[in-house]
Amino acid sequence: MAKKIMVVDDSEMIRNFHCYALKSAGYEVISGLNGADAVEKLFTTRVDMIITDINMPVMDGYTLIETVRKEEDFKDIPIIIISTEDEAQDKQKGFDAGANLYLIKPVEPKKLIENVNMLLGD
Amino acid sequence: MKHETIFSFSDDTKKALPHETTNSDNIITLKSKIESLSDQVRQQKNFINNLIYQVEFFKVSLPIIHKLARSVTETTERTNMELTENIYKITNESERASKEIYNVLKDILTGDKSLKGDSEQLSAISENLTKLSKNYEKEMVETERETDRIQETIKNIYKFTENITDIAEQTSVLAINASIEAARAGIHGKGFRVIAKEIQLLASESKNIALSISKMIKDLKVNTQSYFYGHVERLKNYANTANNLDKELYDVSNLINTQTGIVGMSVQESKKFSDAVKEDIDKVAYSLQYQDITRQQIENIIKILNGIMNNFNKVLNTTDYNTKIDYTELEKKVKDLAEIKFTVKDEYKSIDKSSNESISITDRKEQIVKEKLKGDITLF
Predict the structure, then answer these.
(1) Cβ of B88 under 8 Å from any chain A Cβ?
(2) Under a CB-based contact definition with an 8 Å cutoff, are residues A32 and A60 in contact?
(3) Mean of the per-residue pLDDT values for chain B?
(4) Are residues B191 and B251 in the same domain?
(5) Structure confidence at residue B158 (pLDDT)
(6) Domain count within chain A
(7) Collapsing DSSP states into helix, strand and coil, what is residue A60?
(8) ipTM surpassing 0.90, yes or no?
(9) Which of A7, A13, A20 best probes binding to B when mutated, by most B CB atoms within 10 angstroms?
(10) Binning pLDDT at 50, 70 and 90, where does residue A52 land?
């Protein structure tokens, strides 16, 4: 059975890009419009990984990661941040929140898949 | 009369005034200083009023800038989405076509119904035909040998019948001689004459039988020869046909092998093409992500502008100033200025106007020049 990945980004275009790249690599994909939408969906759908943006309305990426890490059922899900923020402090903030990997936009689909495979042990 | 002290000089002013001056002189000097100070205050007030006006102008402009920025991000995102959807459609179609081509070519190359399978089947048939042809040749040799053996036997039988004919003839001569001798013996040879006659009859029958056998053998020889020669000819034909078929099959098999090779190369080419399309799409996907970065940058610019505006507001809120601003007029001015600069349909939406409502930029520039020049001027 294909592993399921949740893509969280407020930009529909970016969500589509990531979803397309992941589907092409054989993963099942669901998407979240922002952190809050993602958390809501996590309670009804089991996922193997979360890929999230940082700057989003309603709930940002940092809060999403902190929320996920606090929940017993989700705390071990690997999380990748894909953000436009390129400062060292942003990366540090991402790791402090509990992300496993921090990628800077734009991300080559090939590079994204390589990192996803690595984190999922595929 | 006691004069009330209206004002008093400060110590510094006292020092600055000449010691030998009269009160009248002092008053004149002071008046002049006051007038100068009033001028400065007026100038400062004008400056501050102007500054406040500009800040208010900026404040009124800010929502338009917001709307413009939102319009830029929304438009680029929408167009990029449309572009992306089209790219995905093309990609999916290309991927689907590529997969179908790949599967068709793969079916041709592998599996029971493949060209390769056909070629292998043809090779097997060809091998069988070769075996069959060789069997025919063996059969032919065997038949020829068998024909020779039968011919030899017939020859021997023929010789035997010749001997039988000879013996019959000799027996007949003997019977004739015996009849002659019986006649000579007269009445005593009567019995012997009967026997001689019977022997002659027997000899004659033997000869007839031998001749019949001989004729039968001749016929058998002719028929056998005809049958076996015919059989050998047929076998030769079969062998030739098998050989020719074998050669044709060999050629077809070679042709199929060549075609299979070409198909194999096509499969590789098809896969390469599919990979190249995917790589190009990945590049497009990579480049279009800059739209999101641009959106982020615009949002950051707006945040900075909002920050500046908040700072202005804080200053303005803590300052008691009497600048009277006609916001209706100010808004009109901001919109007019924006209208001069705007050229794109979407821009007019930020000032709640459609491009049809607005006069063309050429007309507007002409109007501005006319306003500046004033008078009865015709512009060319």
Answers:
(1) yes
(2) no
(3) 80
(4) yes
(5) 81
(6) 1
(7) coil
(8) no
(9) A13
(10) very high
The kind and range of the H/E element at B12 are: helix B11-16
Instruction: Burial-class residue B54 by CB neighbours within 10 Å (0-12, 13-18, 19+).
Output: exposed
pLDDT at site B55: 87
- Strands of A4-8's sheet, edge to edge? A28-32, A4-8, A49-52, A79-83, A101-104
Q: Is B186 left (phi over 0), alpha (psi -120 to 50) or beta?
A: left
CA distance to B200, B285, B307, per residue, from B315 (Å)? 168, 46, 13
Does B288 sit within 8 Å of A109, measured CB to CB?
no
* Between B60 and B366, residue with greater pLDDT: B60
Specify whether the CB–CB gap between A50 and A79 falls below 8 A: yes
For B76-132, the pLDDT digits (tens) are 888 888 887 887 787 778 778 877 877 877 777 776 667 767 777 777 887 887 888
Q: Is the dihedral of CA A8, A46, A64, A98 positive or negative?
A: negative
Q: Which residue range forms the structural domain that includes residue A66?
A: 4-120
Give yes or no for B291 touching A (CB within 8 A): yes
Question: Which of A64-68, B166-170, B234-238: highest mean pLDDT?
Answer: A64-68
Domain of residue A10, CATH code: 3.40.50.2300
Domain boundary among B215, B234, B265: B265
**pLDDT of B3 strictly over 50:** no
Confidence (pLDDT) at B358: 55
Contact with chain B for residue A26, Cβ under 8 A: no
Q: How many domains does chain B have?
A: 2
pLDDT of residue A9: 95
In angstroms, what separates the C-alpha of A119 from chain B's closest C-alpha? 21
Q: What is the pTM of this model?
A: 0.57
Q: Are B172 and B200 in contact (CB under 8 A)?
A: yes
Encoded tokens for B106: 């793969």
Element of type H or E holding A5: strand A4-8
Residues B313, B307: Cα–Cα separation, whole Å: 10
Q: For chain A, how long is the longest CA-to-CA vector?
A: 38
Asked if A32 and A68 touch (Cβ cutoff 8 Å), the reply is no
User: If we measure between CA atoms, which residue out of A86, A70, A44, A61 comes closest to residue A7?
Assistant: A61
B260 Cβ partners below 8 Å, 6+ apart? B108, B109, B115, B116, B119
